[in-house]
Amino acid sequence: MGKVIILPETTKDPISLIGRRAGICWGSSTDDPEKNYKRGLDCIRSGHGRTWEFVNVEMVLEGYSARVIREWYTHIGGSPTRLQASTRYIDYGEFEYVVPRSVKKDPEKEEAYRAAMHEISEAYRHLQDAGVPKEDIANILPLGMATRVVDKRNLRNLVDMSHQRMCARAYWEYRDLFRDICAALREVSDEWAWITDHMFVPKCELSGFCTETRSCGRMPKKH
Ligand SMILES: Cc1cc2nc3c(=O)[nH]c(=O)nc-3n(C[C@H](O)[C@H](O)[C@H](O)COP(=O)(O)OP(=O)(O)OC[C@H]3O[C@@H](n4cnc5c(N)ncnc54)[C@H](O)[C@@H]3O)c2cc1C
After folding, report:
1. Ligand 1: distance of its center to the CA of 74 in Å?
2. Which of 18, 127, 136, 197 has the greatest CB tally within 10 Å of its CB?
3. pLDDT tens readout for residues 37-92
4. Which pLDDT band holds residue 222 (cuts at 50, 70, 90)?
5. What's the whole-model pTM score?
C-alpha cells in the first residue's frame, strides 16, 4: 500500500560524488570520472563514514502508517529533516489505514479490524458535524492510519538505518518500508543499485553475529 517517491534533489551519482569530495582533501584532480568513482568506492569500502554524509536523499513516503513513521523519526543521526501531513488542516473523515498481514489472512479478523476503523471514521464525522475542530477530533485517529511525509537525510543515516531496520527483529512494516526505499533508489542510477546491494544490510551481516537478545537464527549469537 505504501509508496516511496524519490525527489529530483536526490544525488544521482552518490559514489562519484563521494569520490569528488574526498579528492579535494587528498589533493587529487577531480576531473576524471573514472578516478572519482574508484575513489568513492574506496571511501565506502574503507568505512570513511563522513564522506557518505555528502550524499543527499529527498523522498516522499506515503501510505505508511503513522505508527511506522513514529519509528522512522527515531533515526536522528546527521540531523535529518521532514514534514508530515497535518492532522489540523486535513479532513480525516475517510482516512486510509494499513491492514497487517496477520489480520488480512483471516476474513473474520479483517472484518473486525475494518469495523473498528469504520467506527472511528463515523465518530470523526459525528464530532465534525457537531462543530468540533479537526485538530481536536484528530486525537481519536489510530496509529494504523496512513500518513505522508516528505523527508531529507544523508546516505550515512540510511546506511545506519538499514542495519537496524533490515533486521528480522524490526517491525514488519518498517522492513517493508525499507525494502520499498531500496527498490525506489535502485531506479535512480546504477550507483544507487550498487549502494543498495552492498551498503544496506542488517547489522548481523556487519558484525558476523547476532546482537539481538531474541535472535531469528540467521547468524550465530556471540556468546
Ligand atoms: C528491534 C527494535 C526494537 C525497538 N524498540 C524500541 C522501543 O520499544 N521504543 C523506542 O523508543 N525505540 C525502539 N527502537 C528504536 C531504537 O531504540 C532507536 O531509536 C533506533 O534504532 C534509532 O536509533 P539509532 O541510534 O539506531 O539511529 P540514529 O539516531 O540515526 O543514530 C545513528 C548513529 O549515530 C550516532 N548517534 C546518534 N545520536 C547520537 C548522540 N546523541 N550522541 C552520540 N552519537 C549519536 C550513533 O553512533 C548511532 O548509532 C527499536 C529498534 C529496533 C530495531
Report:
1. 6
2. 18
3. 999 999 999 999 999 999 999 999 999 999 999 999 999 999 999 999 999 999 99
4. confident
5. 0.94
How far apart CA 141 and CA 98 sit, in angstroms, is: 13
Q: Is the dihedral of CA 192, 78, 4, 100 positive or negative?
A: positive
Which residues does ligand 1 sit against, CB inside 6 Å? Answer: 74-77, 157, 160, 164, 167, 169-170
Residue with CA at minimum distance from ligand 1 atom 9: 71
Question: Which residue lies with its CA nearest to atom 33 of ligand 1?
Answer: 77
Cell of 210: 547476532
Whose C-alpha lies nearest to ligand 1, atom 20? 74
Q: What gap in Å lies between CA 40 and CA 19, rounded to an integer?
A: 4
Backbone angles phi and psi of 82, in degrees to 5: -165, 160
CA dist 57 and 189 (Å) reads 13
Angle among Cα 1, 180, 216 to the nearest 5 degrees reads 100
- CA 142 – ligand 1 centroid, Å: 24
